[in-house]
Amino acid sequence: MYRKIIISVIAAPLALGCGAQQAALREQAERASAERDSLVAEVLASAALINQINVELSDLPDTTIAMTLETEGELTAAAQENEMALMRIRGAIKALGERGAEIHAARQRIQELSTSRTQLSRQIATYEATVEELSAAAERREAQYTTIIAQQRDMIAQLSSGLDTARAETERLGMENTLLADSLALIDVARNTVYYAVG
């Protein structure tokens, strides 16, 4: 019974504390997982955009062709195409710059997630160590109380045995007192007896 009380006294606050900490860890892990999924989606979108820009750049007209054109109309058309190509290139450069910044930000967030995951791992290891320490302490307490209870039972058995011996001795002395009282009564009767001489 003492063991159950001790274990429940130790386990109740531990369970409450671990439950709250476990919920906080679960919430952090869920946030980290959602953040990771978001980062993967961003990186995939960046990869798709980069592929698209690469295709567009490869579709641009060859600039060496403009050097071989001879008529003014051909040169004007080529100049216009080159202007449009230049605009597409500038748009691609701008998009790549924005994507580069987003990828850099994603890399930093990944590093933060790694740090957060490392901190979570450390925190979990700390909680595991705490649980092990508390379990060991509870087991030590259980052993101490088991020893104390065994000693108390031995003492109770010894006291009970001593009490039985004392009762037996009391009964024996009571019987001796009764015999002595009877003997004294007989002596008094004998002393007080008067003998008459008939004669």
Task: Explain what you see.
The chain is an all-alpha fold and 199 residues long. The protein is built from three helices and no strands. It is rod-shaped.
Q: Describe the global form.
A: rod-shaped
Number of strands: 0
What share of the residues does DSSP label as strand, in percent?
A: under 5%
Query: Span between N and C termini?
Result: 88 Å
Biggest sheet record: none
Q: What structural category characterises the helix and strand content?
A: mainly alpha
Helix count from the secondary structure assignment: 3
CA-atom Rg in angstroms: 51 Å
Order of helices and strands: HHH
Q: Name the helicity range.
A: over 70%
- Unreliable residue stretches: none
Mean of all residue-level pLDDT scores: 75
Summarize this structure briefly:
The chain is an all-alpha fold and 199 residues long. It has three helices and no strands. The protein is rod-shaped and about 190 Å long.
SSE arrangement:
Elements: H1 2-58, H2 63-68, H3 72-192
Helix pairs in contact: 1-3
Key terms for this structure?
about 200 residues; mainly alpha; rod-shaped
